Here is the input.
Amino acid sequence: MDNLFQHAPVILFVGSLAICLVARIEVARRVRRRSSQIQKLAREAKMSYVAGDRFQLAERIGELSPIPAAADLVIGDVVYFTEADGYRYIFTAEYTVGVLRSQQRQRRVMMLVEPRDGNAADQSAPSVPTLTPGQDQGLVPQYRSLLQAARALPASSDQTENHSSAPAANRA
Here is the structure.
């Protein structure tokens, strides 16, 4: 019995490490699944997808953000395409709202339209980012909503895939 108490700190450390490892693996699995679902939506809409902020959108839209006092803006899962008069980006924006003890991280899907640089007649600034209407929805339904609003994804696409995480073979 004394031997067990001698090794208790080691057992506690190894157990804590194992729990953290399992949690990290689960988070990575969920992120990978969400990214693959967003990539699939991008392919359906004939758009391109990039996981990170390749276009430095966070720097450009920080002051344009429709969220008052949003801080520490991180952009990811960018779906983008070129239009006749500019570029359209649909992306996940993760930011902090609140002050001191009431701070919380939020994640929303936003859309930004930028004019082309080469068009001398239109030197306007990027549009104010558009937020999805339902923050309580998951990220994939928010992407679908903005893709449909941009008319890049047909409205009937919403019914072909359930918003649940069940495999397609199990859906009726």
